[in-house]
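Need tokens for this chain, all 406 residues.
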Amino acid sequence: MTTTPDTALAAETAAAPVPAQDENVWTEPLDEEETAAAPSLPAPAGEPDLTGEAARPVPEAGEGDGGGDGAVERDAREFGKFARTGGWTFALKVARSVRPGGAHAGEAGGPGAKVSAKEFARLAGCSPERVMRFYRAWDRAADDGVVPVFEALVPGEDIDLPDADVWLGYYTSRSSGDSPRGQAISAVAEAEGIRPTKALEVAENPTALRAAILADPGTAQAARHALLDRLEDDPELGEDLAKDIARTGELSKTVAAAARTATSVEFVRDLIDNGEMTTPSGDRVPAPEHVVAEAKQHLALIEGLDEEDEAPYVADAQKAVRSLVTEAVESDPQLRAHERRARFQGKVRKAAKAFEELTLDDAADLYEDELLEQLETLQKAITDCISELRASAQGDADDAGDSLAS
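Here are the structure tokens for all 406 residues:
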């Protein structure tokens, strides 16, 4: 029997093995029941096929089922369509044919009747969950105005679809992505510029995340920055971290040293930013220009150092700036008088508060000769202080009267 060239070519084409799917192209794994029910063909790059049957191109009029230019052209058209639209191609099939709770195929009158996700999945040979992932992706896109709403779609009718790269922003192949937790993770992943599926996979495998942090310094640094960013919105996490640090001896010492360094830097930076200095008594007053200029020089030196080398320089900078503040206060008569008055009043208030807190309910048990002598000495000091203040006030009043008289 003689084989014609065309027949031989067709035979070779039919016998040729299917090219292996590119290992760098992501394809959503089928559920176990889908694998047993309907093994799928390799999907075009960028998105899995919904089912083996759904992705199979339908022969057009005038084209045969065998090989030849018609089959090649048909494959090229289908490939080009998918390359432009990606997963939107399959999502449209679901969106225009599925209505959750819809009737079974053939039960509702007319070819335009939609079916339930369960019935569509049965006809497609896959799980209803997979169908609903495509349905929800279309729903999210419709909310953003990217695609038409379900009510505007009719089974069997094609529409213009968005570009393929838009699809990944709405579709997730993981069922966890539809939960409130998953949606929050997906939203942050999109804000960070990564695919939600990657973030969801990490969230579902905390042990794998732990292993990566323990093994890789870069991953550990990324985790550290993420925890610090989260502290503002998660006070409980901050409390837990603080407790863990306090229970770790060496780590707690390191944190205390870092806190002192940060406080010192903030002291210098606050003086520069606000143009005010804090006096020894705690008052805030305008800082002289030379004090601000000196503080800027110290801060510039600190910011030019590595973190591990800055601690001693920061301590020296704070000490130097404090000395400048003290000198500025002493060189200004009004500030010096105000500072003395503030310190004196502060000590008197502390002493008064201490006595107010004393109770003498058990005075008999508290009596001691030495204690009584201390109180008598204190009483004499208070009396002398009162007399001195009254005499000073009277002298000031007399001076003022003499000035007015003259």
